[in-house]
Amino acid sequence: MTTFSRRDALKFSAGLTLAAAAGGFSCVEVASAAPIEVPTIDKLSVRVLVDSASDIFFKPQAVGGVKTEPGRSSDSRRPLHSEWGLSLYLEPERGDEKRTFLLDFGWTPETINGNMELLKVDPSRIDCLIMSHGHFDHWGGLLGFLDKHRRVLPADLTMYAGGEDNFCQRYVKMGGQGELSDYGMLDRRDLAKQNVKVVLCEQPVVIGGLAFTTGKITRSSIEKVLPNSLVEFKLKDGAGCNASHYLPAEMEGKIVPDEHIHEHATCFNLKDKGLVVISSCGHVGIVNSVRQAMEVSGIDKVHAIMGGFHLGPAPADYLKLVVGEIAKLNPDVLIPMHCSGLNFTEEAMRQMPGKVLTTTTGSRITFGI
């Protein structure tokens, strides 16, 4: 796996090449070695549209210049709904310039659409979409969200996805005999029907002039991909993923443990504070993800690490080691969500006292206060 120096990282492509794909669908891939300019922002607001837990007694908190506030349903007879999954409404600002990005879409359209309504979140403000990786609990609500809101979204709507791996068929093992159960496949033809263009961010890409992605994450830490789904590398009649440009030919049609080759993190450079790195699930390792953001940006200071870290299933000894590696990154704030696990939160509070912020479905997190 290629390792990039910081100077090389800043020479990643900003040039984008259009490529025709199945079903008339167009995708945009980083193709050249032109540099990207890592943008700086003044403020960032994150609204948690979907997460795995609700708490109607949630109280405001503040740590390291970051604050969290509760989000309440606007209808006292209808609660916000929590489900296994994640969706974040991101609002970065720089001066008078503002953008709105929707990162991931939860498990079901009923949850993301219902919570947006109850939180009075305006879908017409969304400039673009970001998909972190190909797990159903992160994109399951997408098509239903588009069915309801596509008409108010930009005509040239773009979704930034980590890479071709996002469109693979996935399975999970069920029952005592380990039978395979369908865990979903995002069909790019469904996106074509909604006139959504996809940017495959296998290398770093600037989003909306205010955010950037890590691109494919180098795996250099002690972290390992913990057991999760199985993935099938197969493209048939326009559905599935074309793995020919990044995997050996013999992988075609194989069903293997999922390594999330193209999972990526969404990042911001907050003025005078440092990096905010958002890992939706962190299967490839949260330390690896943050290191990649540092490599891409050339910025050493980490202000906040947030999102899902997929350490809920981690053995205690491994968890302790990983939290120790996170502590070495010296973030001002750590904000675990979704699949991070209560075990992770407890260990992080033990090793990094005074740095951990908790959230709940509906919370607003504000940076740059």
TrEMBL record:
Residues making up the signal peptide according to the UniProt record: 1-33
Signal listed as a keyword: yes
InterPro entries in the cross-refs: DHPS-like_MBL-fold, Metallo-B-lactamas, Metallo-beta-lactamase_dom, RibonucZ/Hydroxyglut_hydro, TAT_signal
Span of domain Metallo-beta-lactamase: 96-149
Top-rank lineage group of the source organism: Bacteria
Alphabetic keyword roster: Signal
Xref: Pfam families: Lactamase_B
Keyword Manganese: no
Record protein name field: MBL fold metallo-hydrolase
Annotated organism of origin: Bradyrhizobium campsiandrae
